Amino acid sequence: MFWRCSGRKFFVHKTAVVDKGAVIGKGTKVWHFCHIMKGAQIGENCVLGQNIFVSGRAKIGDNVHIQNNVSVYDMVTIEDNVFCGPSIVFTNVLYPRSEIRRAVQEYRPTLVKHGASIGANATIVCGHIIGRYAFVGAGAIVTKDIPDYTAVYGRASMIAGNVCKCGEKLSFPDGGGLSICSRCKERYEKRGDIVRNI
């Protein structure tokens, strides 16, 4: 079944709920039991797997793949070409209490930059940036910013090295300098903790 919104065409499964006022781009697929709230912005050619919730102040770019059982809450921004594995968790409040209603201005923004991948069951604590083409391992807990092209894993997102756009591990023999990807031959330079594609 295809729905139309402002001249755009996208797929919504019959069990999904899309509130009036949500914006969904052309070619996007919204699968079983999803709920897209009014105000949510979802780009083109995305795939939202089963049981996805997208809040009204969430923004999702183009060609984003979100696997089953993920909630994208207010103040979470996911840029283009991001992969979100199944059952990852985003948060937007640092100190939640049931009896205290937090105002929107207390929400902490989370930004997942272009090309990043987040593995299954990772938890992204709000207020942090996951860099371009970063790789967050399955089950990791992100409690700090993750630099571009960096792979992290574990409880406190320990840095496991650096990765190429294609996902291959990069080697910087002296801890810095130049690295050429063994798979796609992209070139990178590392100075301190900063890696950039050259």
Any key phrases for this structure?
single chain, 198 residues, mainly beta, UDP N-Acetylglucosamine Acyltransferase, domain 1, 11-stranded mixed sheet, 6-stranded parallel sheet, 27 strands, 37% strand, disordered N terminus
Task: Kindly provide the name of the CATH class.
Answer: Mainly Beta
Query: How many individual β-strands?
Result: 27
The CATH topology comes to UDP N-Acetylglucosamine Acyltransferase, domain 1
What is the name of the CATH architecture?
3 Solenoid
Structural features, described:
There is one protein chain. It is globular, with a radius of gyration of 18 Å. A hairpin with a 2-residue loop joins strand 26 and strand 27 (about 195). The protein has strands at about 1-5, 10, 15-20, 25, 30, 35, 40, 45-50, 55, 60, 65, 70, 75-80, 85, 90, 110, 115-120, 125, 130, 135, 140, 150-155, 160-165, 170, 175-180, 185-190, 195. The protein is built from no helices and 27 strands. The strands form five sheets. It has an eleven-stranded mixed β-sheet, with no helix packed on it. A six-stranded parallel β-sheet has the order 4-7-10-13-16-19, with no helix packed on it. It starts with a strand and ends with a strand.
